[in-house]
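User: I've been trying to design a sequence by hand for this structure and keep getting stuck. Would you show me what you'd pick, starting by listing the structure so we're on the same page?

Assistant: Good idea, let's start from the same input. This is the structure you sent:
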């Protein structure tokens, strides 16, 4: 019978086998170490990417904020609380007497009072100029509060910001709508009735449109170069001083007197303090 049992391994064979196992274990260890190094490198790359990505996002966010700030304040116009007073009424008269206004129909009324409707925009230079005359006229019929100063989109025409202002009067209702802000973004909406009037009297969509006492004006009523590049305080001071040798003073006051006459004509010449002035009576005599 053949002996099937394995023969004992020579001594040097055992040593070779032991050395082989040791080499295998070292190879396995090297593979593990290499895997750990790759994992650490990958983690490092991910952390670096996050840091770089976060830095890029931060830089982009800062750039966007700066761009927005520059766009919104390109003219460095600050809004400050201001008084509505623009000096005593004068006897200046536009030529023709109605100025830039044309008769368009029956006056508007709100709660039994004549309504002055102003449709404009905060970026609009012509709207900016017209607000001076409107404020000067309305000061004779009531009281403004919460007034602030502003300017058109490039900051060259100083004006009142009337969006948050309030006006109280027993004699006239004042409706002021700015359709867009200084950055040409939508701001206020017209009611269906206001939109109908805007489309009827100003089909081209130009601004401003001023409607008072059945008369409408499109655009400004005087030369804007008279206030261009001046500060709000300078224009207000000039009007308060009332020096007729300053061409700004009669120009704004003549426009204000026309608006005053339209309101007086629509409200049976009330109040007496505003409507009994000879210049207003004379202007009313020319109205339809």
């Amino acid at each position: 019978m053949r002996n099937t049992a394995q023969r004992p391994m020579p001594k040097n064979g055992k040593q070779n086998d032991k050395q082989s196992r040791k080499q295998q274990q070292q190879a396995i260890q090297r593979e593990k170490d290499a895997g750990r190094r790759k994992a650490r490198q990958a983690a490092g790359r991910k952390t670096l990417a996050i840091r770089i990505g976060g830095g890029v996002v931060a830089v982009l966010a800062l750039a966007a904020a700066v761009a927005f700030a520059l766009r919104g304040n390109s003219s460095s116009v600050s809004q400050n609380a201001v008084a509505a007073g623009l000096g005593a009424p004068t006897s200046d008269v536009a030529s023709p007497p109605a100025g830039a206004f044309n008769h368009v129909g029956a006056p508007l009324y709100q709660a039994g009072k004549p309504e002055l409707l102003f449709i404009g925009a905060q970026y609009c230079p012509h709207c900016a100029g017209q607000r001076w005359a409107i404020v000067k006229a309305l000061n004779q019929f009531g009281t403004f509060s919460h007034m602030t100063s502003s300017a058109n989109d490039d900051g060259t025409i100083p004006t009142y910001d009337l969006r948050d202002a309030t006006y109280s009067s027993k004699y006239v209702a004042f409706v002021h709508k700015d359709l867009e802000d200084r950055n040409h973004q939508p701001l206020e909406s017209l009611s269906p009735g206001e939109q109908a009037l805007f489309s009827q009297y100003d089909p081209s969509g130009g601004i401003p449109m001023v409607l008072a006492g059945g008369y409408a004006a499109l655009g400004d009523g005087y030369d804007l170069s008279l206030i261009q590049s001046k500060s709000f305080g300078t224009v207000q001071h000039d009007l308060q001083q009332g020096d007729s040798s300053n061409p700004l003073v009669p120009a704004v006051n003549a426009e204000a007197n026309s608006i005053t006459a339209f309101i007086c004509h629509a409200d049976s010449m009330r109040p007496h303090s505003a409507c009994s002035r000879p210049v207003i009576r004379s202007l009313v005599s020319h109205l339809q």
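That's my pick for every position. To get oriented when you compare it with your attempt: The chain is about 45% helix and 15% strand. The first strand starts at residue 101 and ends at 103.
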